[in-house]
Structures are given as C-alpha cells and as structure tokens.
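Structure, all two chains, one model.
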Amino acid sequence: MAEGLLGMERLRSKIGVEWEPKVCQIEREMVRRFARAVGDPNPLWQDGAIAPPTFILAIGFEQFVEDLTALAPFGTVLMGGTEIECYQPIRLGDVITASFKISSLRERQGKTGKMAFMTFDSSYKNQRQELVAKCRQMVIGY
Amino acid sequence: MTEQLYYEDVTIGSEITPLVKQPTTRQLVMWAGAVGDYLPIHYDKDFAQSRGLSGVIVHGQLVGAFLGQLVTDWIGERGTLRKLSCSYKGMNYPGEAITFKGRVTKKYVQNGQHYVECGLWAENSKGEKTASGVAIVGLPSRG
C-alpha cells in the first residue's frame, strides 16, 4: 500500500457526517461485567444500578469498529487518546443512543507504512433525549 | 470505599492515592467481551507481531478505564467525574504492573459548584509514563 491507505477517500467523504446511531438498553449484567473487567470494586456499580463514567466506552464500540473497517480496511487500529465529558450517570434501564462521526483525518508516514490519524466524536443521549455524555477518541489505523 | 472527600480537603499539589493494576491476558479477554473490542492485537500474539508490536497489548481504553477508577475511588460516592481525558503514549503489556497516579493542579468554584482539576498519569514498572491525562471532578463542600 505504498500509494496510501485503502478507503481514505471514503473516510474523507464521511467527515462531519453522523453514522447510523447505535442504540443500547442498559442491563444490570452489562454494567457488572464492565466493572469486573476493570477490576473496579466500587460499591456504586456492583449492583449494576449506576454505570461508571467510562462505561460509555462499551456503548456501540463493536459496531463502530465494524463500520470503520468496512470503510477503510486497516490491518488494525490503535487508540491514541480518549476524552470523556459526563453530564449525568447512566442508569440501569436507560436506553442510550450513541452517535458517532469522524471529525478529522490525516494520513502520515509511520514506521511500518502509511498511517491514518482520525478523530471521532460521539454523543450519548438517554430515552428522554437528555445528553448524558460526549466522547472524543483519537484513533490510528494502519 | 474510603471516606468522602470534600473540596476543603484538597490543596493544589495534593496527591491522589495511587492505584496499581497488573492486567493479565485473561483480564484483556474480559475487557474485550465487556466492551465488544475484538481487535486481535489484544489477544493474538502472532497477529500483534505482524502489526509491528512485540506481543499483545493492553487496550488503550482499559488504561483509560483504570484512570477513571483512580479518580472515582478518590472522589467517593458524592464526587462526580465531569471530564476525563487520556492520551496513550506507550504500550502496556499484560503481566506488567501499571501504577496510576494523579495530582491536583487547580481548584475553583463556578456557579456555586466546587471543582478540582487533576493531572493523571500511568507508569509501567520501568517508571516510563505510558499514558497521561486530566480529570475535572465536582466535590461536595463542607460549606
């Protein structure tokens, strides 16, 4: 791929465009499984009634990676950074709609060839259309 | 849980109680399942090496979640994490200890709410910073 990365034009055409939203109903076991995976014993989330602030990372991520790699068939992606803003806790039974969009894209020469540096913005609303969180992620594809 | 932290308890330069994690490959699999991150660089050594890594790596976002735990452990039940940013600067490998640390950089009152800003970072066992970040938290006041 000396000429560049496949799918970059497709990605570029998506800058600023919201992807198909991901809808997720928050179940007790999802929150507990998340807390166990982190190894976080905080009693606030042990019964799954309230999710830890970083739980939004679990919402829509699988579909997001599938959508991204369908557009641009990277060998892999690495996370470069994450910024989360929390407006209210996510609670058991909430139905969260996550909207993702790519907000910037750069192609650079890396050690192993061309790399794409992407910034994604996502926002998370509950069933009352209240904004519960926003997230910005720096993603490197190569 | 430690006792509740109040705005008045915090001074600039105060250190956050460090958090030590030693994620195993099993924990990476648990994280993969919990968030739906099935990128093979986190479980397939041969694949990870084919992408120029020395082995499977800890998910950056798991490191972010550890930083989140560092902060939520510290602020207690009545504290609220408003903002968490982290930048992943180096790779963490399973089996290696990672120590998460933080220090208060700013405290202020805005619209009657009490806020504290902290610098955060992660160190591997060689003392190298593999991630750094910033948190803004709201704390109760003894007012």
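Chain B touches chain A through 39 residues (CB under 8 Å).
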